[in-house]
Design a protein that fits this description.
476 residues; alpha/beta; seven-stranded mixed sheet; six-stranded parallel sheet
Amino acid sequence: MNTVVLIRPLFPGLLRPNPPLGLGYLAAVLEKNGYKVIIVDCSILKIDNKRVIRFLTKVKPLAIGISALTSHYNQMKELSRLIKSDATLKNIPLILGGPHVTFLPIESIRECCADFVILGEGEITLLELIKAIENKTSFEVIKGLSYKINNNIKINEPREFIKNLDELPFPAWHLMPPNTYPLDPHGHEYIRAHYAPIITTRGCPFKCTYCASTNLWGNKFRRRSPKNVVEEMEFLMKNFGVREFHIWDDNFTLIKKHVNGICDEIIRRKLDLKLKCPNGIRIDTLDEQIIYKMKKAGFYHIVLAVESASQRILDDVKKKLDLKKVPKLVKMVKKYGIVTRGFFMLGLPTETINSCYKTIKYLRKIDLDYVSIFIAQPLPGSEIFNQWKKNITLGNFDWENIEYRRSNQPLVNFNPKYLKRFRMRAYLTFFFRLRTIYTIFSHLMMNLTWFKNIGQQLIRLLITKKWFKKETVFSK
């Protein structure tokens, strides 16, 4: 049986990793079609590139795949070059995937010395590519693929998006056990000791200029059936002890029928779950009926993507959100005892010093429990990026500078150092007030399991190391 190795490079800094759902879906499709797959998540196993190379020389796989976000592209590039410089591995096909390489395929193939780039939604494209590699057939007919041939780089026609998401198998959870990952990488608010991320939809009909989601997943909204979603939840409960789920959708609440269906299925099966939306939802898609149903199903935390306190800026970035509706909807969510966190961005195009002050002032007025404040960045695939890249040379660019806490890539006309100061001031303004301090203390008292989970986290780290040692392919 031919083996395919899928790799997520080591994260820079102190970032806590989630299970790599994208690789999980790719692995599940390959396994379903008779291939052996190994997922190497360097960030959870703490494996450096030299050890990855030693492992790959032992396995000698049919193909190697690497996936990374823009902020981790440097790690992808370093690992790819090491693979292609190794005498044993240089002739093994090297495949790249993820949003960054999707929107910069030519640059990525050249810089990483790679053979292929999967463009966008990758399950079917990767399967067809692996079959072509195995059978030594042509790559020209494979949609959604960019590849190098005779020192030239070709880009095939786009692939149609998967219409029926229920046709996809569940992610290969046995290759990335969720109970070996750190607790809640999105923040400190969690209730159950064992959690797993889950995706119920793909696609986004909106065209926010700072976001690449529409171009990556398409503008047609596609949904898994409620039964399919909840069956995956039950699978994870039974096999990995998961009791909390974090929904990663870009637009989970867009279609009320979808949300109602999932909540009704959870309630009907009498599942004792805690649920959270850490990726942010459009606040204007909520109404009281939806909030009530979500609370009943077990939702305890919702992130609301507001972005700016300036209606002008929201209109400029095509957010299509009426700020006047936000305070009322926040109060409605809190009425049902659901914790609220707001997403805000400073430094969007057309931002001014006055609009930054306006957002800071707004944070004191709105009744959110928590906020996360970012500095806008030009993500590849977004409309903002297409304007920004006209003024730089991509070949010499350090992609670790695309980071939401820094102002290294300013999109504004005023001195970018002020953005970092405004971000700090916004946090101080919001959190150092009696109302927020009382809220945080109240949540801690109501959820004493957070303290207990600190001890469980340490135990899980030991379990992770034990599980790691059992993987004989990584033994010294």
